[in-house]
Amino acid sequence: MYLPSATESAVEKENTTHKDVHRKKKEKQKQGNCMATVDQKVTIDCPWSIYSTIIALTFCIPFNAKHSLLSAGRRKYLQVCVQNLSELCFQLSDSSLKNSADCMDLQLVPLNPESQQIIYSKQSIFFVWELKWTKELPLSLQCLFSVSFCPATSEEQSLTLKPFTYEFHVENFFTLYHVKTEIFPPLGAEYCKTGSLCSLEVSITRLVDLSEVDRDEALTESD
Question: Which domain of life, per UniProt (predicted)?
Protein backbone atom coordinates (compact mmCIF):
# COMPACT_ATOMS: atom_id res chain seq x y z
CA MET A 1 0.00 0.00 0.00
CA TYR A 2 1.32 3.43 -0.97
CA LEU A 3 1.46 6.38 1.40
CA PRO A 4 2.02 9.77 -0.29
CA SER A 5 4.96 11.84 0.90
CA ALA A 6 6.29 15.32 0.18
CA THR A 7 8.39 16.01 -2.93
CA GLU A 8 12.03 17.00 -2.64
CA SER A 9 13.71 19.21 -5.24
CA ALA A 10 17.39 19.27 -6.13
CA VAL A 11 17.81 22.73 -4.56
CA GLU A 12 16.29 21.61 -1.30
CA LYS A 13 18.48 18.53 -1.34
CA GLU A 14 21.55 20.75 -0.98
CA ASN A 15 20.18 22.28 2.18
CA THR A 16 21.46 20.24 5.14
CA THR A 17 18.89 21.65 7.54
CA HIS A 18 16.06 20.73 5.21
CA LYS A 19 17.44 17.23 4.85
CA ASP A 20 17.36 16.75 8.63
CA VAL A 21 13.79 18.02 8.82
CA HIS A 22 12.75 15.76 5.91
CA ARG A 23 14.42 12.75 7.54
CA LYS A 24 12.69 13.38 10.87
CA LYS A 25 9.38 13.81 9.06
CA LYS A 26 9.86 10.45 7.30
CA GLU A 27 10.80 8.74 10.58
CA LYS A 28 7.74 10.21 12.29
CA GLN A 29 5.57 9.01 9.40
CA LYS A 30 6.95 5.46 9.68
CA GLN A 31 6.35 5.43 13.44
CA GLY A 32 2.78 6.60 12.86
CA ASN A 33 1.76 3.72 10.59
CA CYS A 34 4.12 1.12 12.16
CA MET A 35 4.24 -1.01 8.99
CA ALA A 36 7.26 -2.45 7.27
CA THR A 37 8.13 0.04 4.54
CA VAL A 38 10.03 0.17 1.27
CA ASP A 39 11.26 3.58 0.12
CA GLN A 40 11.66 4.38 -3.57
CA LYS A 41 12.56 7.63 -5.36
CA VAL A 42 11.50 8.80 -8.83
CA THR A 43 13.47 11.56 -10.55
CA ILE A 44 11.57 13.77 -13.02
CA ASP A 45 13.53 15.89 -15.52
CA CYS A 46 11.68 18.67 -17.34
CA PRO A 47 13.10 20.41 -20.46
CA TRP A 48 12.04 23.86 -19.16
CA SER A 49 13.77 23.50 -15.80
CA ILE A 50 17.44 23.15 -14.88
CA TYR A 51 16.54 21.23 -11.73
CA SER A 52 15.38 17.68 -11.26
CA THR A 53 12.36 16.93 -9.13
CA ILE A 54 12.73 13.98 -6.80
CA ILE A 55 9.53 12.33 -5.62
CA ALA A 56 9.85 10.05 -2.62
CA LEU A 57 7.49 7.07 -2.55
CA THR A 58 6.91 5.00 0.58
CA PHE A 59 5.24 1.62 0.11
CA CYS A 60 3.92 -0.04 3.26
CA ILE A 61 3.91 -3.84 3.39
CA PRO A 62 0.89 -4.92 5.45
CA PHE A 63 1.62 -8.66 5.37
CA ASN A 64 4.44 -11.16 5.33
CA ALA A 65 3.88 -14.73 4.07
CA LYS A 66 5.77 -17.99 4.27
CA HIS A 67 4.91 -21.56 3.30
CA SER A 68 5.66 -25.08 4.46
CA LEU A 69 5.00 -28.60 3.20
CA LEU A 70 3.42 -30.90 5.80
CA SER A 71 3.17 -34.68 5.67
CA ALA A 72 1.14 -37.24 7.61
CA GLY A 73 1.64 -40.74 6.25
CA ARG A 74 0.65 -40.63 2.57
CA ARG A 75 -1.30 -37.41 3.03
CA LYS A 76 0.43 -34.15 2.21
CA TYR A 77 -0.54 -30.57 2.89
CA LEU A 78 0.58 -27.09 1.83
CA GLN A 79 0.41 -24.48 4.57
CA VAL A 80 0.67 -20.72 4.05
CA CYS A 81 1.21 -18.46 7.06
CA VAL A 82 0.13 -14.81 6.72
CA GLN A 83 1.44 -12.38 9.35
CA ASN A 84 -0.01 -8.91 9.88
CA LEU A 85 2.96 -6.51 10.15
CA SER A 86 0.91 -3.37 10.79
CA GLU A 87 -0.90 -1.80 13.71
CA LEU A 88 -4.17 -2.07 11.75
CA CYS A 89 -6.70 -4.89 11.77
CA PHE A 90 -7.72 -6.33 8.41
CA GLN A 91 -10.57 -8.49 7.19
CA LEU A 92 -9.43 -11.41 5.02
CA SER A 93 -11.63 -13.21 2.49
CA ASP A 94 -11.55 -15.27 -0.71
CA SER A 95 -8.27 -17.09 -0.06
CA SER A 96 -7.06 -19.29 -2.91
CA LEU A 97 -4.05 -21.35 -3.92
CA LYS A 98 -3.43 -22.15 -7.58
CA ASN A 99 -0.89 -24.35 -9.30
CA SER A 100 0.45 -22.49 -12.32
CA ALA A 101 1.42 -25.77 -14.02
CA ASP A 102 -2.28 -26.78 -14.31
CA CYS A 103 -1.58 -30.43 -13.51
CA MET A 104 -4.80 -32.38 -14.14
CA ASP A 105 -3.80 -35.22 -11.80
CA LEU A 106 -3.34 -32.91 -8.81
CA GLN A 107 -6.00 -31.25 -6.68
CA LEU A 108 -5.52 -28.61 -4.00
CA VAL A 109 -8.40 -29.12 -1.56
CA PRO A 110 -8.88 -26.12 0.78
CA LEU A 111 -9.36 -26.85 4.48
CA ASN A 112 -10.05 -23.23 5.40
CA PRO A 113 -13.29 -21.63 6.63
CA GLU A 114 -15.22 -19.93 3.85
CA SER A 115 -16.31 -17.08 6.12
CA GLN A 116 -14.34 -13.86 6.44
CA GLN A 117 -11.59 -13.74 9.04
CA ILE A 118 -10.22 -10.85 11.08
CA ILE A 119 -6.42 -10.69 11.37
CA TYR A 120 -5.33 -8.45 14.23
CA SER A 121 -2.13 -6.48 14.56
CA LYS A 122 1.00 -8.69 14.70
CA GLN A 123 -1.21 -11.80 14.47
CA SER A 124 -0.57 -14.76 12.14
CA ILE A 125 -3.27 -16.77 10.35
CA PHE A 126 -2.65 -20.13 8.69
CA PHE A 127 -4.25 -21.44 5.49
CA VAL A 128 -4.00 -25.14 4.62
CA TRP A 129 -4.65 -27.14 1.44
CA GLU A 130 -4.49 -30.91 1.11
CA LEU A 131 -2.73 -32.31 -1.96
CA LYS A 132 -4.65 -35.09 -3.70
CA TRP A 133 -3.30 -36.84 -6.76
CA THR A 134 -4.45 -39.79 -8.90
CA LYS A 135 -1.24 -41.03 -10.55
CA GLU A 136 1.87 -39.50 -9.03
CA LEU A 137 2.99 -36.17 -7.67
CA PRO A 138 4.78 -33.83 -10.09
CA LEU A 139 8.46 -33.15 -9.53
CA SER A 140 7.76 -29.56 -8.52
CA LEU A 141 4.92 -27.11 -7.98
CA GLN A 142 4.78 -23.39 -8.77
CA CYS A 143 2.06 -22.00 -6.53
CA LEU A 144 0.33 -18.64 -6.29
CA PHE A 145 -1.47 -17.78 -3.04
CA SER A 146 -3.99 -14.94 -3.04
CA VAL A 147 -6.24 -13.41 -0.39
CA SER A 148 -8.45 -10.31 -0.48
CA PHE A 149 -8.20 -7.87 2.39
CA CYS A 150 -9.61 -4.57 3.59
CA PRO A 151 -9.39 -2.58 6.85
CA ALA A 152 -11.60 -4.12 9.52
CA THR A 153 -12.99 -0.76 10.67
CA SER A 154 -16.38 -0.06 9.13
CA GLU A 155 -15.53 3.47 7.94
CA GLU A 156 -12.57 2.19 5.88
CA GLN A 157 -14.11 -0.97 4.40
CA SER A 158 -15.07 0.93 1.25
CA LEU A 159 -11.39 1.14 0.22
CA THR A 160 -10.63 -0.87 -2.91
CA LEU A 161 -7.37 -2.77 -2.49
CA LYS A 162 -5.83 -5.36 -4.74
CA PRO A 163 -5.57 -8.89 -3.24
CA PHE A 164 -2.37 -9.77 -1.42
CA THR A 165 -0.43 -12.38 -3.42
CA TYR A 166 2.46 -14.66 -2.55
CA GLU A 167 4.24 -16.86 -5.10
CA PHE A 168 6.39 -19.83 -4.07
CA HIS A 169 8.01 -22.96 -5.43
CA VAL A 170 7.81 -26.45 -3.87
CA GLU A 171 9.79 -29.54 -4.80
CA ASN A 172 11.07 -32.78 -3.20
CA PHE A 173 7.75 -34.17 -2.02
CA PHE A 174 9.32 -37.31 -0.55
CA THR A 175 8.61 -38.06 3.09
CA LEU A 176 12.03 -38.67 4.62
CA TYR A 177 11.06 -39.72 8.15
CA HIS A 178 8.13 -41.28 9.96
CA VAL A 179 7.77 -39.99 13.53
CA LYS A 180 5.67 -41.78 16.16
CA THR A 181 5.29 -40.80 19.82
CA GLU A 182 3.60 -42.54 22.72
CA ILE A 183 3.29 -41.78 26.43
CA PHE A 184 3.21 -44.66 28.94
CA PRO A 185 2.02 -44.57 32.57
CA PRO A 186 4.44 -45.50 35.39
CA LEU A 187 5.11 -49.18 36.09
CA GLY A 188 2.18 -50.81 37.81
CA ALA A 189 -0.23 -47.98 36.92
CA GLU A 190 -2.98 -48.23 34.36
CA TYR A 191 -3.34 -44.54 33.48
CA CYS A 192 -1.22 -41.41 33.36
CA LYS A 193 -2.06 -39.07 36.24
CA THR A 194 -1.14 -35.49 37.07
CA GLY A 195 2.03 -35.35 39.15
CA SER A 196 3.22 -38.86 38.23
CA LEU A 197 6.38 -39.43 36.21
CA CYS A 198 5.52 -40.97 32.84
CA SER A 199 7.76 -42.09 30.01
CA LEU A 200 7.68 -40.69 26.48
CA GLU A 201 8.83 -42.90 23.60
CA VAL A 202 9.76 -41.30 20.27
CA SER A 203 10.33 -43.54 17.24
CA ILE A 204 11.94 -42.00 14.13
CA THR A 205 12.14 -44.21 11.05
CA ARG A 206 13.93 -43.12 7.88
CA LEU A 207 11.78 -44.00 4.87
CA VAL A 208 14.12 -42.98 2.02
CA ASP A 209 17.82 -42.30 1.73
CA LEU A 210 18.88 -38.70 2.13
CA SER A 211 20.12 -36.88 -0.94
CA GLU A 212 23.43 -35.06 -0.76
CA VAL A 213 21.64 -31.73 -0.29
CA ASP A 214 19.56 -33.15 2.55
CA ARG A 215 22.68 -34.60 4.13
CA ASP A 216 24.30 -31.17 4.15
CA GLU A 217 21.20 -29.64 5.71
CA ALA A 218 21.05 -32.41 8.32
CA LEU A 219 24.64 -31.63 9.30
CA THR A 220 24.10 -27.89 9.56
CA GLU A 221 20.69 -28.14 11.25
CA SER A 222 21.51 -30.87 13.72
CA ASP A 223 19.64 -29.07 16.47
Answer: Eukaryota
